[in-house]
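Researcher: We are triaging several targets before committing to wet-lab work. For this one, the compound of interest is zinc ion. I'm pasting the protein sequence and the ligand SMILES. What I need is the predicted three-dimensional arrangement of the protein with the ligand bound, expressed as structure tokens, so it can go straight into our comparison scripts without reformatting.
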Amino acid sequence: MKHASSGVVSSLLALLLAAACSQELETGEEALSAGGGPGGYLIRDASLVLTMDSGLGSGLLGTLENVDILVVGDQIAAVGPNLTAPGDVRVIDASGLIVMPGFVDTHDHFWQSLIRGCAADDDLNGWLNRCVFPLNVNPFSEEDAYAGVRLSTTGLINTGVTTGVDWSHNFNNDFMRGNLRALNDSGMRYSVAMFGLNLDGSDIRAAKEEFIDGHPLASIQAAGHPAPGFLEFHLASMVAVANELGIMLHVHLLENISQVAEDPMTVLRNTGALDMGDRLETAHDIHLTDADIAELALHGVSASHQPLSNMRLASGIMRYPDLSAAGLTIGLGLDGGTNDTPDTFNNMRAAVGLQRAKSLNSHETPTVDEVLFASTMGGAEVLNMESQIGSLTPGKKADLIIIDPNQLNWAPQLRPINQIVFNGQPQNVTWVIVGGRALKRDGKLVGVNVSKLLDDSQVAIDNIAPFLVP
Ligand SMILES: [Zn+2]
């Protein structure tokens, strides 16, 4: 009965998704390489360009109007008026359109697309107990992990995410292989935060060697959880592996009020995690004291903010203005199935709206400009990738999106920067380019068979649904 009803719900979800996407998603299998021009792109006469580089344009967002962007190979070659195109680039007419760097999703759990809608009325602990922890001790196959992660990456690309961080629960070795294969097939730039199954870090080392080191869009982090007992022991081993490999460590921090009793700041201190400085990424950061914020800032630790998830799971509201004022680098994240849908615009609206609703101050941090910066350059800084991505600075990787505001949910145009945050929806993202390769082109996803993806996702949730707690 449980199996049947969850299957019906999932089928409805798939139908809704298919209906919502049918106008913009290609259903045929298409080689990813078909997405790019042979030598790059000349994006011609964009009406508005948010470069996120104040040296290139005006203000925090580095705004320019009526300019071209030249992409050669995997890099941004030039930004400016009347650029000359080499003969082998594809010209995109961007008049009336907006160009900006792709979004950086700094904290997510890609497999969790499979459990959309699960335990809708529970808080974090109830949701984990019903929808996540049962999978620690039950089968989760490579194929099912692959389907869930591809469903997430496809949805993220559709909403303009060009770099995603996948904090993977690493349920078992088969799961992890499916997870990593899907990431490498996605075309996205990604960092996988791997919760090591082996205390000596051997599975992280092996994954890095087999899946990450040879892949130009891939990087890896170690993942742990700051709580006493075995988890503290585990976290110490993750710190050791991260330091040995020179990679980041990624933890959830004080997401739910119940975690205050675990004193995670002491665990971070004891394990040496805090000493990693800007190589420590903390997600959620909700129930922090003034002293906690000061200590994180002192160490240069970064924060990832999940407003939609925090609302959905009754977690609380991150003290965004205080973390920002203390100097912490802040990025945004979609945080997996807890948000039920990948929509970066919704996430930005929630980030702005939560603080306004809490403070009764319409000027509260983050402002519209600040949330756009945090969603791109801020995310790049969280990942220590600001020299490669996050802005349209020539020489950086060509990770960018083109937004079409001339649609029902957005028109007419009055204050386009405000409208990105307050009116934007995934269907307004008509082009997504990662490392010079188009993953969404003229409003259609490239290189993915969506109907097969929906079928495979349904098979996957039908396989694991019997293990979830009804
Ligand atoms: Zn999370």
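Researcher: Any quick observations?
Model: Confidence is low (pLDDT under 50) at residues 1-36.
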